[in-house]
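TICKET: design request
STATUS: open
ATTACHED STRUCTURE:
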């Protein structure tokens, strides 16, 4: 395993790196002339001791006659670089007629660290046309998936790694934020049926190139090229790769370029999965990919995932989504039993459609055996919450967050996990801790609003849930339902009934689950109607029913024999 050796000094927010001749403040480099840097290094190395003017001048200008004013000027430059004023922290003390003393506390650090964590930065698209952008995005996604198969390596997931592109980061600052040892960056150029890729490996804390390699292949060989690049990176950082992992990295399909292009378009829209239009478009592209290349296992896996996601969000009738989703998952698993995504898609169908708890758990564990995948950890969170294993669910979600710390989905699901575990203070703490991330997902507002409901802060709950309503078009049924519940609990039955009517109108155009009507009836205190709708949702096999055992929305019904019978029919015990 490659070892990173470091030697540096720290004081306040500053880091002084002798080997790199660099001064950093909170990860940002402070420009210094060579003489100023050399003077600072001398002072820091003699921290706490008086350094004579004569010694400084002999060390810095050994072969030249200079006046003391040169020394005074260099000290002034250093104080400005260190942001030292009469009102701020002091670093350099002047000893009149004698010299200078560095008075801040200094820590000298010598480290030897194995490379254990990595992020793949978004690839730069050098191609013209829309396909080039899809291809670069898909290559970025695929290389992350390939490297995540190596159990000894922590690989940051896509959602967090793309934050580098959308914000003004330096590589060292990004490395500190995500606790990275190395990053991979590269560029892609598509020309007709050829693809040229340049890949670079960077020592993340030092922003220093370690290795670079260029590749050129036919587009049909891109999947084998992705595996080749992953193996080359693993070899360069000398990370431990087991024989089974080597075999998996070599097990790549040769795919028709047009099928791969359709798959990449589907993946692009898959990442917009909080919208019905995004998921529908993704399904269309995955189906086109499969039509061209029927053996394309990844396309089958993500096609299945689309139907599972749409069913959970009440965008499709459960029976329709189950038929399509289960068939696609079976195809993916039959074609590629060593592909983590195959097991994730199958686990989702077992969990959300079959309510087969042991099969779901087994499939999730199979996915995790094949890859340290944040989606698999996140799916286990949903499974564990359904079973009532609150602490296991939260631990799994934190593992998912370790791999994708800047993901809206992963952070929001941690809020939700604490909420369902009745840890309201912790849910609020997570929510407040993610405010700087500026998420704009409706689910975030819905979960935070539900958190306020659980603590009987009805006005705050309604205000938060109203933020989840879209500016245009009709809101998804689950959002209308939770808002209706909030109105009902706040005593505004007219507004709650208005949400119920909106659900009825919405049902004329698309699927609306009886579960959503049950949510509003619960807020209105209409227990009989709520229970009737829950029975309908049970018969409908509405996916959100799997969390009925722990869902706080229905706490007012607990203890009612009819409600407990519904929970028992889920087969969770």
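STATUS: resolved
RESOLUTION: sequence designed for all positions
ATTACHED SEQUENCE:
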């Amino acid at each position: 395993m490659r070892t990173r050796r470091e030697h540096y000094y720290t004081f306040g927010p500053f880091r002084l790196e002798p080997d790199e001749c660099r001064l950093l403040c909170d990860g940002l480099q402070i420009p210094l002339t060579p003489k100023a840097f050399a003077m600072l290094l001398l002072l820091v190395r003699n921290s706490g001791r008086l350094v004579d003017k004569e010694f400084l001048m002999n060390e810095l200008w050994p072969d030249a006659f200079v006046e003391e004013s040169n020394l005074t000027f260099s000290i002034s430059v250093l104080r400005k670089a260190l942001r030292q004023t009469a009102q701020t922290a002091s670093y350099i003390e002047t000893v009149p007629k004698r010299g200078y003393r560095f008075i801040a506390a200094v820590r000298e650090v010598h480290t030897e660290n194995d490379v254990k964590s990595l992020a793949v930065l978004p690839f730069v698209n050098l191609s013209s046309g829309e396909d080039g952008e899809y291809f670069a995005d898909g290559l970025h996604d695929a290389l992350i998936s390939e490297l995540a198969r190596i159990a000894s390596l922590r690989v940051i997931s896509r959602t967090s790694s793309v934050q580098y592109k959308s914000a003004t980061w330096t590589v060292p600052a990004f490395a500190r934020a995500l606790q990275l040892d190395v990053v991979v960056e590269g560029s892609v150029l598509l020309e007709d049926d050829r693809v040229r890729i340049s890949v670079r490996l960077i020592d993340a804390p030092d922003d220093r190139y370690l290795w670079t390699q260029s590749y050129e292949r036919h587009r049909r060989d891109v999947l084998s090229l992705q595996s080749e690049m992953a193996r080359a990176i693993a070899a360069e950082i000398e990370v431990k790769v087991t024989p089974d992992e080597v075999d998996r990295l070599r097990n790549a399909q040769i795919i028709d370029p047009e099928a791969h292009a359709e798959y990449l378009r589907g993946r692009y829209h898959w990442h917009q999965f909080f919208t019905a239009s995004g998921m529908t478009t993704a399904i269309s592209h995955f189906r086109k990919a499969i039509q061209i290349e029927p053996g394309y296992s990844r396309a089958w896996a993500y096609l299945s995932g689309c139907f599972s996601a749409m069913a959970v969000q009440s965008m499709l009738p459960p029976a329709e989504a189950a038929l399509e989703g289960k068939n696609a998952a079976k195809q993916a698993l039959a074609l590629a039993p060593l592909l983590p995504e195959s097991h994730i898609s199958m686990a989702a169908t077992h969990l959300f459609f079959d309510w087969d708890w042991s099969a779901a758990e087994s499939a999730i564990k199979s996915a995790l055996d094949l890859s340290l995948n944040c989606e698999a950890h996140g799916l286990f969170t949903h499974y564990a919450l359904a079973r009532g294993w609150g602490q296991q669910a939260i631990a799994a979600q934190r593992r998912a967050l370790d791999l994708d710390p800047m993901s809206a989905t992963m952070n929001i699901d941690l809020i939700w996990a604490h909420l369902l575990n009745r840890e309201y203070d912790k849910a609020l703490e997570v929510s407040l801790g993610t405010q700087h991330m500026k998420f704009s997902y409706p689910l975030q507002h819905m979960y935070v609003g539900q958190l306020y409901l659980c603590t009987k802060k009805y006005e705050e709950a309604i205000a938060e849930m109203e933020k989840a309503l879209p500016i245009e078009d009709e809101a998804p049924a689950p959002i209308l339902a939770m808002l209706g519940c909030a109105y009902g609990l706040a005593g505004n039955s007219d507004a709650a009934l208005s949400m119920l009517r909106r659900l009825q109108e919405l049902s004329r155009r698309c699927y609306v689950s009886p579960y959503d009507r049950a949510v509003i009836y619960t807020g209105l205190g209409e227990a009989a109607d709520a229970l009737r709708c829950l029975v309908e949702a049970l018969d409908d096999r509405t996916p959100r029913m799997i969390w009925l055992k722990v869902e706080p929305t229905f706490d007012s019904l607990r203890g009612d024999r009819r409600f407990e019978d519904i929970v028992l029919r889920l087969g969770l015990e």
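CLOSING REMARK: The radius of gyration is 29 Å. The domain at 115-254 is CATH 3.40.50.10070 (Rossmann fold).
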